[in-house]
Structure formats: C-alpha cells, structure tokens
Amino acid sequence: MALGVSEPEKAQIARRFNRHAGTYDRYARAQQRLADELLERVPGLVGPGAAILELGCGTGYVTERLADRFPAARIVGIDLAERMVAATARRIGRRATIELIVGDAEQHPWPEGAFDAIVSSSTIQWFTHPQTTMARLARSLRPGGHMLHTAFGPGTFRELFALVEQVEAERRLESRTGRVFALRSAEDWARELEHAGMRDVTAGHALVEYRYASCRELLAEIARTGASYNPAGRGRFDVLAEVARRYDREWRSAGGVVATYDLVHVEGRVSG
Fold first, then answer.
1. CA distance linking residue 209 with residue 226, whole number of Å
2. Which of 52, 109, 139, 176 is the most buried (most CB within 10 A)?
3. CA distances, 90 to each of 113, 137, 230 (Å)
4. Count of C-beta atoms within a 10 Å radius of residue 253
5. In this structure, what DSSP letter does residue 187 have?
6. pLDDT over 70 (residue 231)
7. What is the pLDDT of residues 251-267, one digit of tens each?
8. CATH top-level class for 7-269?
9. First to last CA, the chain
10. Three-class SS state of 45
11. Which of 170, 156, 163, 143 is nearest to 245 (CA)?
C-alpha cells in the first residue's frame, strides 16, 4: 500500500495551495470532474436537514453546491490552506448553516456521532495517517451515516511517471517516483473504510484522458492548482527536462499530448 504524505510534505502542500488559491478554479479541470461525481452521489445519502462535514473544502466549489442543494443542512468545511478557506467564504457569502475551519482534518477534534455524512473531493490522497484518520472520522458519524470520497488514483499521470522511470534507469539514478507522488487505488481506500468499521463499502475508478499543448503546459496546469511537484524528485530538473522532451514526442496525438487521470470514488456507511 502507498505511504501517506509526511508532516513536512503536508506543510509544503498547504503553502502551495495558499499561493495558488487565486488560480485554482481556472485550471482544476480534473478536480472539478471529481467534485461533480461526488455531488452526483451525495443526494442519495443524506436528507434535507443533514449535518455534513466536508474535508478539504478548497475554494468552495462543493460547499456552495451542497448548500444550494440542502439549504437546511448544517455544513462544516475544513481546509489546511487559509487562503482556500477565505475563497470559500467569499463564494458562499454569509450563511448561518455553514461553518468554515482553517485546520488539519486529521488532527481536528471531531466530536463522536456529530455528522450524517462526511465527504471530500481531491483531498484524502494528502492524508498522513489514512487508516487511523478514517477510523476516527467513522466514529464522528451518526448511526447509519455515510462517508463518500473522490480522489486521484495510482494511474494518474502514468505516461509521465513511465518516462521518469525510464530516464532514471538510463542514468542509473535511484528511482524516487513512487515516493514523490504516491497514490492509493480504489481497492486500497475500500480496505481503509472497512478497517474503520464501515459497512456496504463500494469503490471504483475511471481512467480519463486530458490533452495539453505540451508536457510543460501539463506541468504548469498542475502548478497553478497548487499541486505542483517535480516527479523526478527535488533538484532533478535535468531529468524533468529530458522527460518533457520525450513526452512531447511519444505522447503526441491530434489535439496535443495526452495525460491520464485515474479518478477514484469510495463510499460506505456505519451501522445503524
């Protein structure tokens, strides 16, 4: 199973999302697709006056739509990045039923039995302690409450990582790709929910292709969402430059170069 994000990495993630809160919505195409899938599934899980916890509220795309769909619901949103939370506040305006928190969802003292549903989009892949966090979150659900997450799976950017590994092998460099951006599969997340005591767990994924003018445009779009990273590892910009050259040659088709995103969804409920 993939490793969780370390605490120092999580702090860096928060700083990156803060820097790019103003450009996130413009470039987060795949993230929005994950959010839309989440929003399609939520209405079948909760009633009109539900208490909903949203992990990683970001700029408020999901928060706003949940509030519009369930105007009587109590919604609590949390995010590591204060500028993301500020963007959510601007988007939704003043609504007495919504509470926004700047903080770490893994560390926040959630009360037991407080929520009817816990949801997140493009967030759980950033967890440091996914197993213990899922167990603690499950305890904060009321009997019969649901958990629903969408995230990026290990097939995300598979073209990019294959080329990084190729160049690393040719240069006899130690591979860092598995640790730089480790992602869990739908099956991995289903096991985490089962370990947390959730029932009726279901999970699935879909591979979706997006096109970009070049590899550099792909990397720039990732950066403008705040999820920027060097897939070759810190300091290996010569490797990344060679990867970009090969990517533009090997993955070009009509309309630009192809990049795959692995879109994962997982849900379950507590007994009751």
1. 20
2. 52
3. 30, 27, 32
4. 9
5. H
6. no
7. 998 889 999 999 999 99
8. alpha beta
9. 30
10. coil
11. 163
